[in-house]
């Protein structure tokens, strides 16, 4: 990561902060975001033994930047996959948290139409420009992910809660109009607001959301076998742990170190890694914590193992990342 | 300097690992990050038995030790947050 030209070119102060994020390598792929999503989608479908024509819906989690305006990356992915019959659109507007409204939408579609085929949620994570560092937050990597949701599977999304605060809508942005792409950067427009107000609001929001999520599902913290968060920085993971007085599964720090930040893909990547490592067994509950400086907060409660409720979406996850 | 200002100044000096005066704006000095903010607010809540709500998150209330002391006294119900040794013009 330290060898990337855009990191080498950082001012000394920013390079020092970047060096303390806990990120050693990031995925770098020549493919564009839609291709990253497409690769993951193909593998998810192949592993599930489902053809793209059987999909009832294709939900694309919004990319950071489309290659052209007016065109549709969502229907491009539909065409490439051959998802001819899939209701196709993009869900987004909430940065990393955008995966949550996509899952809410999938759940609504599956509940509303008993005949609807499986729903594929896909996202290609790729930074807007060659500048991968977002001061003082994270380094963005490249990666694609696809979640295949149906009425039964080996992981159940039990419940989800989400809140937003529009006062932060422009806290981070890329000012691109009239600028050469080489000058496109993810910039924080108000660093004290990010480091103080949003941080403390995040603590308060996440505490309240976690209490609400567990209470309405008749659970306590002792019933949750694992917590995962998105991968921004080592300090960010510690912040979440201290704010909520919990310990995140170690796969969060491992994926952060190896892959950097993959936007909306982080939480299910971490969950998949934890499952592969055998940290959760059938029937265990896990909570996926996602925060975006837009600002948005979401918590997903999932249960591993075959689903008990036929109406709750059960995703199969597939991640494609080139490190 | 009143007792709360003194205690907060002491906390800030320890947390930031450098001397901090009661009216030093450590945000303007670029010393604050989100982990520090979390530690600071947790210290204020636990030490003074107050709760910092989302609507309390005006950065101006937390920029300096003296301002934090006034915020604490206001949360504790003291008029205008003033206490012995506070400077109302700060």
Automatic annotation (TrEMBL), chain B:
InterPro entries: ACP-like_sf, PP-bd_ACP
Residues in Carrier domain copies: 1-76
Membrane-crossing residue ranges in chain numbering: none
Domain of life: Bacteria
Full protein name: Acyl carrier protein
Protein source organism: Streptomyces albidoflavus
